[in-house]
Amino acid sequence: MVVFAGQGDARRSMALLWRSGEPGEVRPGPKPGLSVDVIVDAAITVADEEGMAALSMRKVGERLGRTGMALYTYVPSKGELVDLMYDRALAELPAEYDASAGWRPAVTSWAEHMLAFFLRHPWVLQVSQARPVLGPNEFAMLEGMVAILHGTGLRPRRLRGVVALLFDFVRGAAQTIADSRLAPSATGVSDEEWWLARSSLLEEVAPGFAGRFPMVTWVESEDDDRGEDEPYFEHRVGETFAVGLMVLLDGIEAAVKTG
Question: For position 44, which CATH number holds?
Fold first, then answer.
């Protein structure tokens, strides 16, 4: 499921994101008052617990003890709601990173925080990056990343490419981990069961596999240091993330040296 940002009216959506002309809080009767932030927080909780597919104005209204219609005074449609959810969730990320020890440790911290953020809110991964939300917290996240790399001396054009590469790398790793966590409940088969069933059959259906694919066999020959209770595939992706990030940082360092 892919959700595109900016589905609502452009002026109305941007005004809500930047809190320009937000409806005032209303307190009818004994019920707690509604506001854009209250509604968005409730929507994030729904998406965290039940996924993006379960998100609706009615479901958010129920969580707040209101009808879905009661929310439209504050948030005109689900399109605007998704934009607001995405940007508000990004506020969890640090605004600044300490680069006093160098840009590499700072970028590593940024990447680890981003990965953890995506895994806390896997529904965020369904919001396409083809059209950014353009909210204040999205810009704050970008500002923090550019600030880390600004000291490398890379020119803006090259630095834009570096930032995009790092973001796509972290998002891709997070997507794979999120999918692996979802797979057991979606399919009724655990990762361990899935891999054991197929790996045990591989030699039967593909005799001489090692001879046909010696490099694949070689690269899989070294034992990993997975903990007893750690999911197999998630461990592999975690290893890949660490190695991939190191290689990317080495590449950035080489780009900095060559100017």
Answer: 1.10.10.60
